[in-house]
Amino acid sequence: MSTVRVLVGTRKGAFILTSDGKRENWDVSGPHFAGWEMYHIKGSPVAPNRLYASQSSSWFGQIIQRSDDGGKTWHQPGTPPGEVPAPGPPKTASNKFVYDATPETGKPLITHQFYDGTQHPWEFKRVWHIEPSLTDPDTVYAGVEDAALFRSTDGGENWQELSGLRGHGTGPNWQPGGGGMCLHTIILDPGNPQRIYIAISAAGAFRTDDAGKNWKPINRGLYSQYIPDPRAEVGHCVHHVAMSPSRPSVLFMQKHWDVMRSDDAGDNWKEISGNLPTDFGFVIDVHAHEPETIYVVPIKSDSEHFVPDGKLRVYRSRIGGNEWEPLTKGLPQNHCYVNVLRDAMAVDSLDKCGVYFGTSGGQVYASADAGDSWAPIVRDLPAVLSVEVQTLG
Amino acid sequence: MIRVILPPHLRTLAHVGGDVELNVEHPVTQRSVLDALEARYPMLRGTIRDHTTRERRAFLRFFACEEDLSHQSPDAPLPDAIASGKEPFIVIGAISGG
User: Fold this and answer.
1) Measured between CA atoms, how close is A73 to chain B, in angstroms?
2) Which of A46, A227, A236, A12 is nearest to A133 (CA)?
3) pLDDT grade, residue A111 (50/70/90)?
4) Which CATH number fits the domain that encloses residue A95?
5) Among A317, A371, B52, B89, which one is most buried in terms of CB atoms within 10 A?
6) Averaged pLDDT for residues A206-217
7) Do B46 and A62 touch (CB under 8 A)?
8) Number of domains within chain A
9) Mean of the pLDDT values across residues A350-354?
10) Which chain B residues are within 8 Å of A65, Cβ to Cβ?
11) What is residue A86's predicted lDDT score, i.e. its pLDDT?
12) Interface contact flag, B59 A58, Cβ < 8 Å
């Protein structure tokens, strides 16, 4: 029987939740890295026991952790525990993220727009999102704050910036959102290894068609009242983007306000908020087998980061947007004031599709029937930052 | 031997249970102690000093002999009691945050 492994990052550690394919009874392990902010944990699609985790702290900075046994043991890539390092300069630096400022790679950027409109130096703060390669367990991408994309080809031991993204020309107009200027979404096209989508808050969505050398903004059709030109090429606060692997040219976006879709790989977007009670939110995801079935969790507003009316409702559209139905069975429908952050929803690939999300209140909810009904796996974790799912066996 | 006391999170990262003992060539300074610490425990690189600037991370302090040495030159000699191992060199995290 299949096994499902849910990887949960929280404000104070990581947790691994495991169940069989029935998804009724769960084993919970953790906290791993207790006390640290775990922004994201994700497994390699081709070597599922290879997990990468982003561990960070305001005190000690960024750490990358790797497990090669499905999360039972962890180490910082290149520095196995108990191994006395050889004398001489270090060969690895798994937590070293240095922006590319070499003249060879073109146009190193110095500053971006800050909250007050002035230019501000680019400063590395943390890794928000880790995206392992679809084909090579040693290749992995990292989206960081201040926004940039890094890649490792040696299992996370060393990282290099794909500097064509920051250097393509609009960088000085990027600006931080409330959570910082973060590159939070990385989507690898399963049908085209040259194509990668990323999204930045608050710059927008971008695409490369040559494996990261050159990038272009893909924000046509977005409308954001909070920037001087609401239809500007960049400056949009994109919260998350999702894609069905079976149809990689169709993208769904939860923007700061507005839920959007693109049917041409991001070249053009149209709004699909339809009858949602509010179109502010963070998460968006796509059913594993039905590419027109999508999920969002509406949040009341950008000044009240909790669900509307005290009710935790996932909304599902089965026709690719505009017509949404609330999914409430098993979810609290009074006195609930949690948020669901941008990386905190995921789907498994079982039939029926499982859907999972975590809240700022520390609950992780699971649905084993594509959202028709829900139950908490755990209720009292630290605030959940990210949820990923692996379908094993 | 120089004794170094690390905050709990860094002890966990370094897989050590208590004080760290290091051989450090004279003159013993903040820089030579931290260089020796990072050479022996490379998983700590970047956690105490910034990778690029080599400056102390903002929420950390260096205490020794009941003094805050954080703002002294990294190349200033540390007190003899540190160099002799009588007193520890303490890396401490700011008490802040939630």
Assistant:
1) 13
2) A46
3) confident
4) 2.130.10.10
5) B89
6) 96
7) yes
8) 1
9) 96
10) none
11) 72
12) yes
- Domain range for A381: 3-80+90-392
- Domain definitions of chain B by residue range: 2-93
pLDDT(A364) > 90: yes
Which residue has 């540390």 as its token pair?
Answer: B78
**Domain assignment present for A85:** no
The domain B2-93 having CATH identifier 1.10.10.10: the answer here is no
| DSSP secondary structure string for all residues of A215-239 | -EE--TT---TTSSSTT-SS-B-EE
Residue listed under structure tokens 């270090």? A90
Burial-class residue A211 by CB neighbours within 10 Å (0-12, 13-18, 19+): middle
Judged against a pLDDT cut of 90, whether residue A45 lies above it is answered with yes
B2: β partners = B22
Q: Which residues of B touch A58 (CB under 8 A)?
A: 59, 97
Contacts of B20 in chain A (CB under 8 A): none
> Could B42 and A58 be called an inter-chain contact, meaning their C-beta atoms sit closer than 8 Å?
no
Per-residue confidence band for A347, with pLDDT thresholds at 50, 70 and 90: very high
Tell me what ipTM this predicted complex has: 0.93
Q: Would A96 be classed as within a structural domain?
A: yes
